[in-house]
Amino acid sequence: MSDVQKALSRYSAVLSGDERPLFRHCKDLDHKLEQAKEIFENCALCERRCGVDRNIEAGHCGVREPRVVSEFLHFGEEPELVPSHTIFFAGCTLECVFCQNWDISTRPDSGRHYSPVEMAKLIDGQSGKAKNINWVGGDPTPNLPFVLEVIGHLEEDIAQVWNSNMYLSEEAMGLLDGVVDVYLTDLKFGNNECGERLAGVKGYWDIVRRDHILAKGQAEVIVRHLVMPGHVECCSEPILDWLAEEFGDTIRVNVMAQYRPEHHAFRYPEINKNLSIDEFRKAYKQAFELGLNLVD
Ligand code: SF4
Asked: If you classify domain 3-294 with CATH, what class do you get?
């Protein structure tokens, strides 16, 4: 059996529940939680590295206590993940001007607070109905210590999906090592300039590439790439080339066509329109010809 077949076979086993999720083998969850709380007090959970004590004040993302906007069994994720118990946190570490979940990502005070024990009970209450727990938002990164604490209280043996923009710090990626079974990532921009202009962060392309490599060393990876109007050459092409070069067909790639102008997209002429069929075809053709392992 090739390495790729072994990886996919283990991945299917984890997702189908035939294999115990990794976090049950994570002996140092308590230690990770201690480390996470230290980082929380001088916040460097994402690469904005605000350095604030989140017990006292919010950083750039505006998130203080974790707030959950909605949680439900999701049947619209990639086929291998559904049904997925999806937990949507308020707040985000990026500021994408075209955000399609802006009502969640830009309102870190929305939703309601759960204690870790309450959240663990809520998850265990859905026992047997979902293949995995899917931590998302906004973005789950500002609430990483909370997620570790919830996992520590879970009765149910269930796979953990980290559904994220991957702008995490290296320290935060280390905390997830051995805890996350599947990284479900959004890879948006193929260079730092588009990341700064459209998501308000520095070093986007350098950081997310590093974190994808770290993620692949820890768990299975499914990458989502939303093709955007006017960004095929500068973003889709370098992203798809890099994924092929770095990972070949060992990760799943979902090339997505559902871009629509939302939020502040009207201020940026090239993205203030729907994606054309020709632009999507161009990106998809490239992904296909590169031999990527595409989600249908
Ligand atoms: S998670 Fe929020 S507070 Fe922490 S470094 Fe990132 S933006 Fe700043």
From this structure: alpha beta
**79 CA → ligand 1 middle, Å:** 32
Domain residue extents for the chain: 3-294
Q: Which atom of ligand 1 is nearest to the CA of 51?
A: 5
Ligand 1 centroid – CA 60 distance (Å) = 6
Question: Which atom of ligand 1 lies nearest, measured to the CA of 54?
Answer: 3
Atom 6 of ligand 1 has which residue's CA nearest to it?
46
Query: Distance from the CA of 147 to the center of ligand 1, in angstroms?
Result: 15
The answer to whether 107 and 157 have CB atoms below 8 angstroms apart is: no
253-283 tens-digit pLDDT: 999 999 999 999 999 999 999 999 999 999 9
Over the range 157-173, which residues count as b (16 or more CB within 10 Å of their CB) and which as e?
A: ebbbbbbbbbbbbeebb
Contact 154, 87 (CB under 8 A): no
Ligand 1 neighbourhood includes 46 CB (under 6 angstroms): yes
CA distance 69 to 180: 22
Digit-coded pLDDT (tens) for 56-87 = 999 999 999 999 999 999 999 999 999 999 99
pLDDT classification of 3: cutoffs 50, 70, 90:
very low
Q: Is the pTM of this model over 0.90?
A: yes
The rounded Å distance from CA 208 to ligand 1 centre is: 16
3-state secondary structure of 27: coil
- Which ligand 1 atom is the nearest neighbour of the CA of 46? 6
Q: CA 212 to CA 61: how far, in whole Å?
A: 22
Yes or no: say if 172 and 37 are a contact pair by the CB < 8 Å rule.
no
Q: How many CB atoms lie within 10 A of CB 253?
A: 22
142 lines ligand 1 (CB under 6 A): yes
